[in-house]
């Protein structure tokens, strides 16, 4: 029985063109990109190709792209930069600094926001509606609340939620931010290569990760508008304009360049997954009915075409995932970074409550998912549900 991989939001299989470029680079381009001699210059050209490719993918300038170890580091850097100059708060400082951030962000944003809060930054949290979208009015209220007590330095919001696929109102929030002169950071890790660039349009800072677009793990980027002045989190050499010191990896860069280039045509491939996702949703509803379980869909309104999140009353999501894994169906309960914890997903808890969050399973399709995969996954799912009833 073959594995049906339906967890593309956790990571994507590297594309063969990415593997080929990395294999070539691994044996031929081993120089240090910071060296000025020939082998170094050759390695540096791979780094710069990756920088050009990510900048073209998000629609910003390569001179403003910082290559990082992935989405987590890019997100940390985006939040940190806005507050680095005012931490720790000094006695006598007249106005404190504030951050507006949604409750349904990836942990790499949420944990950093909490940390900044502990360091004295005023953090205005914005909850989602039960549909999974962050209401624009709630962002406006949070901005007003924060501005009344501190200088608002940043608004942070994901373009598309990693657990539900719900598309967030970035355009409207960007307009709010522009009107108030507050920079907007958009975590586009789950959006680039899947949605058109309008999904993060208006952002002043944009993050992405190579492994979500069929590139290698361990590399990503933060790309900004030229007006943004980033601050370093790491100290060392002058790589990445001193903002991200440490020897760059030309092999990972070779993979990122190919992945980012491919991802520019990704939205059309992902759009084609919408009907497959809907087919799967229908089949799972029928499988549930057959087994006396009525699954509840988490996330309404505009969704990315490849993501489906459902709660299964009577089940724990992690147990259902484990049972499906025995049937060689790879799906997840919550995001990959919280997998293995018994905690319900904070994203779903904020949307629909803890009980439903505990029973949730996320399915995310990808470029290679076929109709046959979807039908086969639904039939294995029905088998698991049926066995438990038996
Ligand atoms: C929305 C979002 N942001 C950030 C990240 C973190 O990216 P990385 O795994 O490259 O650290 C993820 C990973 O799942 C994500 O889904």
Furnish the topology, listing elements before pairings.
Layout: E1 4-5, H1 16-28, H2 38-58, E2 65-68, H3 71-81, E3 96-102, H4 107-118, E4 122-126, H5 136-147, E5 150-158, H6 170-180, E6 184-187, E7 205-209, E8 220-224, H7 250-263, H8 266-271, H9 274-290, E9 296-297, E10 307-311, H10 317-326, E11 329-330, H11 346-352, H12 354-358, E12 360-364, H13 371-389
Parallel strand pairs: 1-11, 3-4, 3-5, 5-6, 6-7
Antiparallel strand pairs: 2-8, 7-8, 9-10, 10-12
Helix pairs in contact: 1-7, 2-7, 3-4, 9-13
The protein binds pyridoxal-5'-phosphate.
Question: Could you describe the 3D structure shown?
Answer:
There is one protein chain. This protein is of the alpha/beta class and 390 residues long. It has two domains: 4-13 and 269-389, Alpha-Beta Complex (Aspartate Aminotransferase, domain 1); 16-264, Aspartate Aminotransferase, domain 2, CATH 3.40.640. The protein is built from 13 helices and twelve strands. It has a seven-stranded mixed beta sheet with strand order 2-8-7-6-5-3-4, with helices on both faces. β3 (96-102), α4 and β4 (122-126) form a beta-alpha-beta unit. α1 packs antiparallel against α7, α2 packs parallel to α7 (250-263) and α3 runs parallel beside α4. The chain is globular. It starts with a strand and ends with a helix. The mean pLDDT is 95. The protein binds pyridoxal-5'-phosphate. The site of pyridoxal-5'-phosphate has 17 residues, from α3.
